[in-house]
Amino acid sequence: MSVQTTTRARPVTADAVHHNLGLIHGEVLTAAGALHRGDMADVARLIGEAPRVFLAGAGRSGLVLRMAAMRLMHLGLDVHVAGDTTTPAIREGDLLIAASGSGTTAGVVKAASTAAAVGARIVAYTTDRDSPLAARADVVVVIPAARKTDHGGAVSRQYSVTPPRRHDALPRSGAPERRSAPRQGVRRAVPLRRDRGPGHGAPSHVRRAGGAPSRAAATPR
Question: Which NCBIfam families match (predicted)?
Answer without folding.
Answer: RuMP_HxlB
